[in-house]
Amino acid sequence: MITPSILLALASLVATLFIAAPSMSGYFWRYVFFKDCIYIRQRHFNVVVAIESLLLVLAWVERPLAFLLYTGEITKNGVLVYIDNVLWSICYPGIVLTVCWRYWIFYCDVNIHQNKANKTWTEIINPISNKADFVLEHISTYGNTRWCGIRLIFIYVALATIQFVLSYY
């Protein structure tokens, strides 16, 4: 008997495999193909590649495997459950952290450009007012994609490990 939850899972799988995954793959290919364009370079290419790679693994591999395990179409083999848990633990924390990382870097870029543009006229009006700005003071650390990325890798490994361990409880 087909239950409503199985129908919902099947509809979700069809939408993922036939709509979302191909469109994400096409977008990713176009993005990589035009990576030397100045508009793409400004959008932090490495961060976007990390996000898209995790999303593609999630859409093409993890979700169909989870659907097959959920519906009982394949037996709950220990290896397949292990693979599903590993992919789940790799994809979700990675997607969340890279999206947050991307928005943080955008925030820093916007503030850096705004502060540099406003710095000249504020110095003309009042040369004594040398306001300390967090973003400009930490441009080589918190505003640097590489510096933030290295630290986020440690957070990512910790979160993925915790999620993987908790997936068995």
Automatic annotation (TrEMBL):
Superkingdom classification of source: Eukaryota
Key words of the record: Membrane, Transmembrane, Transmembrane helix
Transmembrane segments: 6-32, 44-61, 86-106, 148-166
This protein's name: Uncharacterized protein
